[in-house]
Design goal:
This protein is of the alpha+beta class. It is about 65% helix and about 10% strand. It is built from four helices and five strands. It is elongated and about 70 Å long. InterPro entries: DUF4293 (IPR025635).
Length: about 160
């Protein structure tokens, strides 16, 4: 039943986690040297690379976790007949989204050390989308639980 409200929340969750893969997560600009460091879901790299700058750092863990969370959300949406499985998948998705946030935070910390430690970096939209996904996951789980309680109350009336 795709028309249920939790299905809408899960679809929005999947879109938010897919967007993490394509949007920048963190950036840092050093005005003295003109260098900019950008963190995406697949790499941590300098935007204006000079000859002496180090090679980009692969951050595929962020992309893998975000894609896994999106896939679990879509699978969870399609399992509308088994609400207990949906709740378990919701808990798995919670862990995946928190891991995505943790990996993003870790790699932004690595980036902080790569370029002028005195200047702080800024978190971009790709960092805040997993937080939105957490909220959507909580809402979806709440409505799944509410459906289960409704079904149980109807069984009691029979």
């Amino acid at each position: 039943m795709i028309q249920r409200i939790q299905s809408v929340f899960l679809l929005l969750l999947a879109l938010a986690m897919l967007s993490v893969v394509f949007l920048p997560i963190w950036s840092k600009l050093d005005p003295a040297s003109g260098q900019e460091l950008v963190l995406t879901a697949t790499k941590l790299t300098y935007a204006n690379a000079d000859a002496g700058i180090s090679v980009p750092t692969n951050t595929y863990a962020i992309a893998a976790l975000a894609l896994a969370a999106a896939a679990v959300a879509i699978f969870e949406m399609l399992q509308y007949r088994n609400r207990f499985l949906q709740l378990k998948l919701g808990m798995l998705n919670l862990v995946l989204i928190v891991a995505t946030l943790g990996a993003s935070f870790y790699y932004s910390g690595v980036g902080e050390k790569m370029l002028n430690i005195k200047i702080p970096g800024t978190y971009e939209a790709g960092f805040y989308l997993p937080t939105l996904a957490l909220l959507l996951n909580v809402l979806a789980n709440r409505f799944i639980r509410r459906d289960e309680q409704l079904v149980r109350s109807m069984d009691r009336l029979r």
